[in-house]
Every structure is written in structure tokens, then in C-alpha cells.
């Protein structure tokens, strides 16, 4: 047995694992047991989660909307408050990474594969099928609303969730010297009970939600990548091809995560960001450049002009389900990613002030996402509105191939299409790297440098769960389960906000912050 930073005992396993036994074993048993039950009773489980998903969307959508907005405005308050001068880790602590390295890891960990595939598809979808907000489909107003909604789904609100978890974990782990686990954030509320059954239950739930969320994302990513490769090269869309892709991606994750934060994750994140900038610059130069430049201020203006309307929209009088399929689903997905993304961001943010942290986690990623969607989304709308490029017809068949039809309308379409697939894979690998490291940290009792054997274990489990989902048709079921898990996690995030507020006030309320 060895002691971790909090004095808690962590067991050293014969295979080289260094585990907190209750969290490691109970999480593993729940994950493996859930997959066995899903495979054996797939239809029954699918019906149960489908019903729960409908119930959550129908009766608690308002709760998601309110909580996400409350979290965003609390983070904005912290940015301008006197707490903004506080350093995570104390006055003498120094950042481990320069700003570009730090930002690259944050963005790649938090954004995932969706940036590539939805960069053109989402604005186009909202243009053709606008929400019930009094806008005519395929109109100029629909185009303006489409860009505002895309900014909304990928912007401030989502990144604020990562900000809250990252700030809470960074403050309590580095400034209060507690373990780097989700339960530590609740120390001001439950005290030393974070070391007991209540704290363990929180960490186990965070582990299970993280693993299933990532496995679902991997299965979806592989499906989208397979669709892209099929579109470009004619490679068949079969389980065999998709399993091969899972194995390749999992192997890349293992190689990278073994390298650790410094050699593996940092370098891969920088490569991914640089490649994304090159692809975005190419589209900007070869696409409708003047149209894009004109769209930058207009898109921002539309977003802020409609900010309150779309932020608090619940389609109460519409009698439709657009909100459930889009905004509520997005918030649930961001929320299920928040524990791992926030913990990883906390892990790499020691030495940053709270104001620096919020700038790097909330504002900078939002600005890059806005720029990406302006370049790709505005160009796609231009092609649809003025060139009849056929993007909408492709979207009706398979939304993941819209980006490749988009590239066909630019120069060097073969090179850009292959670059798009590589970039999508890299975005997912970097996200998976971060999640694998976080799972290893959580199941090691908060140790920030868990052994490689532990990292390999969780990366492999993620790949195996994804393969099981694809072979037994359980992807839709797990998507529903992930959304359902977003509801209790939303309650946890709200409690986390009050706990962080209390912790900051108790620790620094009577002390000078300069």
C-alpha cells in the first residue's frame, strides 16, 4: 500500500496498477456488467433508455437550460471579480506550459470530432430546417439564425461547464491540497465525507459516465470516419472496417497517453491545432473569401443580438421537439464530458490565475470555434444559397459526408478530404488521451501521474466497449443512456458551483488577493 497526496491509501497492484480499490473495481464491474446486460437484454434495455431519454427531454429540458445559463454567468462573474487574481496552487506556483501549448491541449481535449463533421453540416441543417422561431426555411433570416444557433451550441455555454469543473478541481487540488478527484470539489459542503461512501459514489459515477461517453463518441467517430473513407475511396461500410478503425485509433491513444502530458498529449495537440489552422486557412483562401470576411462581424452580431432568446428558448408554445433533438442533447453531451475535460484542464493549469484560466478555457476556445464555423459554415451556406453545390441533397442521405461534398467544391479536393479525415481522427485521439489519463487519475485516488499499465487498461476498455456497441447495435441505446446520465450530472455541477463559491469565500473572503 502507498499513500497518495491526501494521505489516503492507494493499493499497488501486481500488474503495475496503482489503484483506489473501491473506485477502480466498482467502476470496472459496473462498466463490464452494463455491457453484458446490454448485449443479453438489448431490446429491453433499449426500450427503457429510450423512454427515459424522452422523459428527461420532455420534463427536465427547462432545468438543463437554466443550469447551463447560471453556470455561464457565474464564470463570467468570477472573471471580473476580485477572485480573478488568485493563482491555482498559490502565489509562488508557475505554469507548466506556455499559452499556446496549454490552449492547444484544452481545445483538443474539449472539442472532439464534431468540429470537423458539423462545421458545414450544422449551419446548413438549421438553414434548411430552422427551429420554431418564426423564421422561413432557406431564407436570409434562416441563414442568420443558423449561424447564431451554431455559435450557441459550440460556444460560451458549453465551455463554461468545463470551466466550472476545471476551476473547482484546480482550486481544491492545488490550493487546498486535496486529491485530484471530482469528489474533492464538494469538500466545503460534505467535509471529510469525500473520503467515505458519498465521495466514492461521486467518483464512481464520474468514471462510468466518462468511459461510456467516450466509448459512445468513439463508436460514432468511427462510423463517421468510415462514411468519409467510403465517400472518398469507396471503402465499404462494414463492421470489419469499423473494428479495424477502432483498433487503430485505440493503439494511437495508447502510444500517445504512455508518453504522458508532456511528450504525448502536448505534442499531438499542437500538431492537431496547427493542422486545423492550415485547413481553415486553405478554405478561407480558396473559398468565398470576401463573403467570409463580411460574415465575421455579422455572425457575431446575430449571435449577441439573439443571445437571450436562444439561451432561454424552450419552445413552450411550439409543440415541437426541435429543442430536445438539438440544444438539450448538446447540453447533456457537454455535461457528460465535463468531468473528464474539466479534470484534464485542471491537471495542466497549475500556476494560472482564475482570470487567465477563464480566458484560456472559456473565451479563447469560443473565439476559435466561432472562427472555424464562420469559415466552414458560412462557406457552406454560400455554396447552398448561390452555387447550388448539392450539399443539402447529400445531407438528406448522410450528414457525415457533407464536409466531403463541400471539399469537392474547392481546389485540391482529394487532399483536403484526406486532411479532414486525419484531422477528425486526431481531434478524437487527443480527447480520448485526456479522458484515459483522467480515468487513470480518478481510479488511482487522485494521483496525477498514474502508471502506464493503468492508462493502457482504460484505453483498451474504451475500445472494447466501442466494439461491443457496434457489433450488437447498442450505440443508440448508449447515446440515450449518456443523455439520461446528463440529468444527475447537471445536479452535481450545480452543487459544484455552490461548493466552489463557498470554498473561495471561506478561504479568501477575509484575505487580500493582490
From TrEMBL:
Listed GO CC annotations: plasma membrane
First-listed, main subcellular location of the protein, grouped into a coarse class: membrane
Compartmental location: Cell membrane
InterPro entries named in the record: BCCT_CS, BCCT_transptr
One protein family per Pfam: BCCT
Membrane topology: Multi-pass membrane protein
The keyword Membrane is assigned to this record: yes
Keywords per UniProt: Cell membrane, Membrane, Transmembrane, Transmembrane helix, Transport
Any one GO MF annotation of this record: transmembrane transporter activity
Glycosyltransferase recorded as keyword: no
Transmembrane segments: 21-40, 60-80, 100-121, 154-174, 201-223, 243-263, 270-296, 328-346, 358-383, 418-444, 456-475, 481-500
Superkingdom of the source species: Bacteria
Family as reported in the entry's similarity comment: Belongs to the BCCT transporter (TC 2.A.15) family.
Protein name: Choline/glycine/proline betaine transport protein
Organism for this UniProt entry: Desulfocicer vacuolatum DSM 3385
Amino acid at each position: 500500500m502507498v499513500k497518495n497526496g491526501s494521505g489516503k491509501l492507494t493499493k499497488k497492484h501486481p500488474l503495475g496498477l496503482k489503484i483506489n480499490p473501491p473506485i477502480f473495481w466498482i467502476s470496472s464491474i459496473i462498466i463490464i456488467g452494463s455491457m453484458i446486460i446490454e448485449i443479453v437484454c438489448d431490446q429491453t434495455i433499449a426500450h427503457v433508455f429510450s423512454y427515459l431519454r424522452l422523459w428527461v427531454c420532455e420534463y427536465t429540458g427547462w432545468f438543463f437550460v437554466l443550469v447551463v445559463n447560471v453556470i455561464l454567468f457565474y464564470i463570467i462573474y468570477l472573471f471580473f471579480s476580485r477572485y480573478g487574481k488568485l493563482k491555482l496552487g498559490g502565489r509562488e506556483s508557475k505554469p507548466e506550459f506556455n499559452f499556446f501549448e496549454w490552449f492547444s491541449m484544452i481545445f483538443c481535449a474539449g472539442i472532439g470530432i464534431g468540429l470537423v463533421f458539423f462545421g458545414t453540416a450544422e449551419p446548413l441543417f438549421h438553414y434548411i430546417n430552422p427551429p420554431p422561431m418564426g423564421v422561413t426555411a432557406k431564407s436570409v433570416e434562416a441563414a442568420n439564425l443558423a449561424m447564431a444557433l451554431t455559435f450557441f451550441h459550440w460556444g460560451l455555454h458549453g465551455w463554461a461547464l468545463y470551466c466550472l469543473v476545471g476551476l473547482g478541481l484546480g482550486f481544491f487540488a492545488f490550493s487546498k491540497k486535496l486529491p485530484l478527484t471530482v469528489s474533492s470539489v464538494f469538500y466545503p459542503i460534505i467535509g471529510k465525507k469525500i473520503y467515505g461512501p458519498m465521495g466514492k459514489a461521486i467518483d464512481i459515477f464520474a468514471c462510468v459516465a466518462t468511459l461510456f461517453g467516450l466509448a459512445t463518441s468513439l463508436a460514432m467517430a468511427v462510423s463517421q470516419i468510415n462514411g468519409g473513407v467510403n465517400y472518398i475511396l469507396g471503402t465499404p461500410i462494414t463492421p470489419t472496417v469499423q473494428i479495424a478503425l477502432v483498433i487503430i485509433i485505440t493503439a494511437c491513444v495508447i502510444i500517445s497517453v504512455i508518453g504522458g502530458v508532456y511528450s504525448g498529449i502536448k505534442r499531438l495537440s499542437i500538431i492537431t491545432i496547427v493542422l486545423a489552422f492550415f485547413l481553415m486557412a486553405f478554405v478561407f483562401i480558396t473559398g468565398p473569401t470576401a463573403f467570409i470576411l463580411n460574415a465575421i462581424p455579422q455572425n457575431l452580431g446575430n449571435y449577441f443580438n439573439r443571445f437571450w432568446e436562444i439561451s432561454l428558448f424552450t419552445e413552450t408554445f411550439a409543440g415541437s421537439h426541435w429543442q430536445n433533438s438539438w440544444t438539450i442533447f448538446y447540453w447533456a453531451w457537454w455535461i457528460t464530458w465535463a468531468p473528464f475535460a474539466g479534470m484534464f484542464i485542471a491537471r495542466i493549469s497549475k500556476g494560472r490565475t482564475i482570470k487567465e484560466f477563464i480566458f484560456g478555457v472559456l473565451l479563447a476556445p469560443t473565439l476559435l470555434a466561432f472562427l472555424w464555423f464562420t469559415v466552414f459554415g458560412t462557406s457552406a451556406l454560400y455554396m447552398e444559397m448561390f452555387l447550388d453545390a448539392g450539399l443539402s441533397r447529400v445531407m438528406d442521405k448522410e450528414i457525415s459526408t457533407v464536409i466531403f461534398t463541400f471539399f469537392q467544391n474547392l481546389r485540391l479536393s482529394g487532399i483536403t478530404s484526406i486532411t479532414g479525415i486525419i484531422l477528425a481522427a486526431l481531434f478524437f485521439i487527443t480527447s480520448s488521451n485526456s479522458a484515459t489519463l483522467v480515468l487513470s487519475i480518478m481510479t488511482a485516488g487522485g494521483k496525477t501521474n498514474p502508471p502506464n499499465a493503468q492508462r493502457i487498461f482504460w484505453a483498451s476498455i474504451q475500445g472494447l466497449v466501442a466494439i461491443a456497441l457496434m457489433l450488437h447495435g447498442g450505440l443508440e441505446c448508449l447515446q440515450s443512456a449518456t443523455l439520461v446520465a446528463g440529468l444527475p450530472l447537471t445536479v452535481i455541477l450545480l452543487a459544484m458551483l455552490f461548493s466552489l463559491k463557498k470554498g473561495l469565500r471561506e478561504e479568501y473572503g477575509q484575505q487580500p488577493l493582490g
